Structures are given as C-alpha cells and as structure tokens.
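Hi, here's the filled form for the chain we discussed.

Project: internal
Contact: R.S.
Residues: 553
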Amino acid sequence: MNHHTLHQTRDQAPAEPAGEPDGGRGWTLMEACARNAARRGGHTALICEGRRTSYAVLHRDSNRAAHAMAAAGIGRGSRVAYLGRESEYYYLTVLACAKAGAVIVPVNWRLTAAEVAHILRDSQAELLFVDQEFAATAEEVLAGAGAGGPRTVVRLDATGADGVHDRGAGLRAWYADAPSHGPQPGTGPDDAVLQIYTSGTTGLPKGVVIAHRTFFTLPAAIRAAGADGGDWIDWRADDISLISLPGFGIAGLGWFLHGFCAGATHVVLPMYAAAEAVRLIGQYKVTITFVAPAMLQMMLDERGVTPEAFASLRKIAYGAAPISQSLLRRSLEVFGCQLAQIYASTEAGSVAVCLPPSAHRVGSALLKAAGKACPGNDIKIVDRAGRTLGPGEIGQVLIRTPAVMLGYWRRPKESAEALAGGWLHMGDAGYLDEDGYLFLCDRINDTIIVAGQNIYPAEVEKQLGEHPAVADAAVVGVPDERWGEAVHAAVVLRPGARARPRELLLFLRGRLADYKIPIRYHVLDTLPRNPSGKILRRQVREQLAAGQEPPPA
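And the returned structure, exactly as it came back:
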C-alpha cells in the first residue's frame, strides 16, 4: 500500500452560508461544516479516546483531505471506501468526501475479505482508506481485484520509530500539504453523499444511496410543524452525544450527522462495550444517545451500575430491534430520562416513525407501538394488491419521507419497486390504530405460516423475553411435513439461570394463542445479530439445523 502527499491548486473559497435555505432542506454537509466553523469554531465537535477535535479544526482538516482527494482524481460522484473503526478520522473523511463531491462508502469491518471485495467491486470505489488493523484484509482483497480495485489506497494510521501506534498519522501525512480553504465541487442538496450497503440477510448486499438533504429534512419539518423537537427526536447545540452504534451503518453515521448539523459534541466509541459506554456517559456528562435494545440491557446489567451513573442523560433513543416490556420498564426506572423509540431503515435515510417520550408511561398500551409518523412523513398499510388497509388490519408498511434514499446503486428495477408510487415499501408487516400509531408485527419475509395461520416471530420473542430466566430470544419457522412450518425458539439464558423447555411452554400459555407457541426450545450461548442489532434469523435456522435436536416441549 502506498502513501501519497497530494496537492491542489487553490480555488476561490465559497462564501459562508447565510440563513437556512429552504427551511434547512437546501443545505449540504459542506455548507453545514463551514457554518459550524464560523459560528462554533472553538466548540468541541468530537471526542475519541480522550482526543478532542474542535469544529474549526474539523473544517480545516476536512478541507485539506478534500483537496487531497481531488488531486488523486476523486471528483463529483466518485466512490470512496473506508475500512476501519470509528474515530474522529472517520468522520473527518466523511466530511471530506462531501466537500470533494464524492460519495463515502463505509465498509463493515466485521465482514470477511470476500464480502469486502463485493462492496469494493460493486461500488466501483476509486479510493480506499484502511486502518492498520484491517490492512491484511485489504491486502487480500486488492490482490484478488487486480486492475479492478481502488487505484489509490491510504493507510489511516501509522506506528512511529518508538513503536507507538498513532491513530490518524497516515491520513494526516497524506493531506498535510494540501490547501485548507473550502473546495467548490458544485454539489447540491439532492446529490449523493453516502452509500451504505444493506446487511444482506437475503442475497448480496445492495448499496443504498443517500443525499445531502437527508440529514436536514427532519429538523426542518419539526420546526415547520411548530414543535421544538422535545417530544420527538431532537439534536441541540449544547448536547453531548454518545455514538454507540457503528458508523458504517445509517444508525451510527446518521446519528452523528444529525447532531453535527446542530453543532453538538460527539463522544465516539471505536467499538461498543457496555462498561466503556457507562464510563463515558459519566465522564463527559453525555446528554443524548441512540442504542439498540440489547445495548440498554448490557448497560443495565453492568455490575454496580446505579441511576446516578446516568444522571446527565436527558434522552435515549432506541430502535433497530424489538424491545421487551420488562426491559422498557427497567429502562424507565433506572435511566431516569426521556425515552424515544425510532423506526427507520437505511432506505428511509432518517427517522421515519417515533414513539415519543410522552407515550413512555409504565402500563401504557402505546409501549407496544413503534410510534407515529414524524413531522413531514406519512405512513400507510397496504395488502398484497396494494390496497390501503384500515385501522387494525395487518399489511405491508409504506413510508413517505423527504429523507428517502435516491435509490439502490446500479439497480434501477429494485429501486423502482422499493419506491413505487412515491412510497418506500418497508419489509415489515404491521397495522395502524385509530390514532395513527404504527404497531409492527414482524419482517414480512420472517413470517411463519402454520396451517395457514400467520405467526410473527417478534410477538413470540417479546413474550419469551418476559420470562425471568431469558436474556434473549429468537423465533424461527422450520419445515414441517404436517403443518408446513413449525415454530422453534432459540433462547439465551441469564447467567446462572435455568429454564426447562416445558417451563417456557407453560409460561407462554395464556399469553399467546396455542398455535403461536414454539414446540421446541434450543438454548444458545448467543444470538447472531447484524451490526444494527437485528437478529439474523437465517443464521439462527442454520445453527439449529447444525446442532443436536433438543427434546420437544
């Protein structure tokens, strides 16, 4: 891999943006970065492993990196891949791409070399940034790519003569001699800036292309609705935000970019660990964060944790996976702050539906809801023929949002299907109540059909999660000669807990219709999940098929 020192002829710097064009929807990330530097230059933008980066430094260095990209032949629409853990240098690179007119393609560092190769090949990435930790994977991928791989590779970090690892040293050396004024790529709010590959639970991952406008639409819609955001998801300039979810997904990166546009401070975890998250919340007086339910559970289960550890928090947003009622009750008791549930997808770009803090009351039936459409968004439920269904009728969830993706990269047919009629067709089944609250049943493709009866695994998993011995649960359908499919459950037990299959079966009786109750129960050490916390049921089925068949309940 080669290191490069690149230069770019100085251009006229663009004027700082004045006001908020189109109510905030007309911004680009480049303009937001310039505004933050002008108005909040000395304010801390990022904290990672004790290192602080101000908005002024972030603006200056992302300008330099953007010019270095241009000198490497990266221009408007070019794809730039990033393979590395979260740090201030990742977010600097994201902003540099925005300023170069390029599209950042974050790569999940948990992937195999073959999976990384697919993303680099499919995205046609011309430049690759890579951490030292994943250099061997990158070398393997590039060796097999030949002339079809990225033409420029930049190592992000370096090890000094003293043997000390310096995160970001390679990147800093790469752009050190580039000019620091703002480039002018000519991009607008509807230009692509981000390409995230779906988790690929079925088939090869697809590149979801996201525009600059995505990260401004929700705050603008909340303001237009006359709301201050307090009862939705809001980002404030005085917030200290903990980025808990991985930045290679829309949940983590979108959370940063929304807070960045508000001028907040972000505390970055290179990799989530519950003990470290609890420590950072206390050390930096974190006020807001976004987590998957499993992360809530892990923080609450940390030894010696008390409500005082979370005293600085004003709001926790959670989503990306179902949450049990017992975990919700415990979270309300211990965290002592507002809770807001998020329902979205990579394709939706931003928060589509929110269960606001006002609905988070112990005993409220709304705690089972995903929420209501955020300001500026719409929801409807349709049947297989596309007919709109009424309250209480289960069908496919459709979302209409100005934050929606531009489409799937180089997949026009699938893009047209996903966005047919101007509505994003979600992969979830659900229904609306009389007040417009969305209740999710499950992923459409995960629906289990037993003798013609639809069973939604999430419903069964929630009830299993209420058992005091069960820490986690996944429910899947397996082929059955008599009924078509049979319901099987995989459970992870709490440390030291025991639960026999018959005990679990009896626990579910009276809570679920008999045909929904699993006939077999498997105890696993852990459940496979994707980086955003969603259970990978295909892998659960494979694990159950490979393991010893347990006795029936």
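Let me know if anything looks off before we file it.
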